[in-house]
TrEMBL record:
InterPro entries: PsdUridine_synth_cat_dom_sf (IPR020103), PsdUridine_synth_RluA-like_CS (IPR006224), PsdUridine_synth_RsuA/RluA (IPR006145), RluA_PseudoU_synthase (IPR050188). Residues 25-181 form the Pseudouridine synthase RsuA/RluA-like domain. This is RluA family pseudouridine synthase. GO terms for biological process: enzyme-directed rRNA pseudouridine synthesis. GO terms for molecular function: catalytic activity, acting on RNA; pseudouridine synthase activity; RNA binding. PROSITE patterns: PSI_RLU. SUPFAM superfamilies: Pseudouridine synthase. Gene3D superfamilies: Pseudouridine synthase. It holds the Pfam family PseudoU_synth_2.
Length: 232
C-alpha cells in the first residue's frame, strides 16, 4: 500500500535493504517486500525505508515510494537540492522504470498497452478506481516474458504469466489496478483481486518487483541504469 490507514499494522520485516549505489548526492537501494517506504502515523509502523536510511545517511529524503508489498529499486536523495532535481526528473518523465510481475492467468497477447484513468475511491480507502470522468490519465505497457504455473493449494496449479510492466505515468497503484483492468490481476494483490483465483492465497507476497531504473545523475549529468533481479 502506498497509503496506510490507521488500522493497518505492518508485521515485522527482518529483510535488509540492499544498497545498490552510493555517492555524495544520492542512493539507489533495493527495498524488500513487506517494508513501508515511509513510517506511518501509528508508532507501531515506525520501521520503514526512510527510518532505516536516515540513521545511516542523515538528511536523506525519499524521491518516490514503492507500495508496502512491492520490492525493488528506489532512488533516495542525500539533500534537499538533489531531491528537488530528481523530483523534477520524475515529473517530466525523465526517469524510466520497469517492473517484473506475475499475473494471474495466461495473457492472450504477448504485449500491449493499458490506458485507463485512475481516481481515488473515498469509500474504500486506500483503493483506487478506474474513472474516465474524475480520474487522472494513466498509461502502462506490458510485455510477456513467459507463461507458466504457480504451485496451488493442492487442488492443482494456478496459471500465471511473467511480464515486464512499464508505467508511462506514475499514478498511485497504477500497475496493480491496470493489471486488474486487463483481467489479469497481480498475484498476491489483496486490493485488486490477486488473491481470488484458486491457489492464489498461497502467494506469500505481492508478486511485483521494481527491476530496472534509469535516471540522469543531477550533478554529473550521466545517464545511469540500475537493475535488481526479481526475487520470485
Amino acid at each position: 500500500m502506498s497509503a496506510i490507514n490507521d488500522t493497518f499494522i505492518a508485521p515485522p520485516c527482518d529483510a535488509a535493504i540492499t544498497l545498490i549505489f552510493e555517492d555524495a548526492h544520492l542512493l539507489v537501494i533495493n527495498k524488500p517486500s513487506g517494508l513501508l517506504s515511509l513510517s506511518g502515523k501509528n508508532p507501531l509502523n515506525l520501521d520503514s525505508v526512510h527510518h532505516r536510511l536516515v540513521a545511516r545517511f542523515p538528511g536523506c529524503t525519499l524521491v518516490h515510494r514503492l507500495d508496502f508489498g512491492t520490492s525493488g529499486l528506489m532512488v533516495v536523495a542525500r539533500n534537499k537540492a538533489i531531491n528537488a532535481a530528481l523530483c523534477q526528473q520524475f515529473s517530466q518523465r525523465g526517469v524510466s522504470k520497469s517492473y517484473q510481475a506475475l499475473l494471474c492467468g495466461h495473457l492472450a497477447d504477448d504485449d500491449g498497452v493499458i490506458e485507463a484513468a485512475i481516481a481515488k475511491d473515498p469509500a474504500q480507502f486506500p483503493r483506487m478506481v478506474i474513472c474516465a470522468v474524475a480520474g487522472k490519465p494513466a498509461r502502462s505497457r506490458y510485455r510477456v516474458m513467459e507463461r507458466g504455473f504457480f504451485p496451488g493449494n493442492g487442488n492443482g496449479e494456478l496459471p500465471v504469466t511473467r511480464v515486464v510492466l512499464t508505467p508511462e505515468t506514475g499514478r498511485t497503484h497504477q500497475l496493480r489496478i491496470h493489471c486488474q483492468q486487463l483481467g489479469h490481476p497481480i498475484l498476491g494483490c489483496d486490493l485488486y483481486g490477486g488473491r481470488l483465483p484458486p491457489g492464489a492465497e498461497q502467494a506469500a507476497r505481492l508478486m511485483l518487483h521494481a527491476s530496472e531504473l534509469t535516471l540522469t545523475h543531477p550533478v554529473s549529468g550521466e545517464r545511469m541504469t540500475f537493475s535488481a533481479p526479481s526475487p520470485f
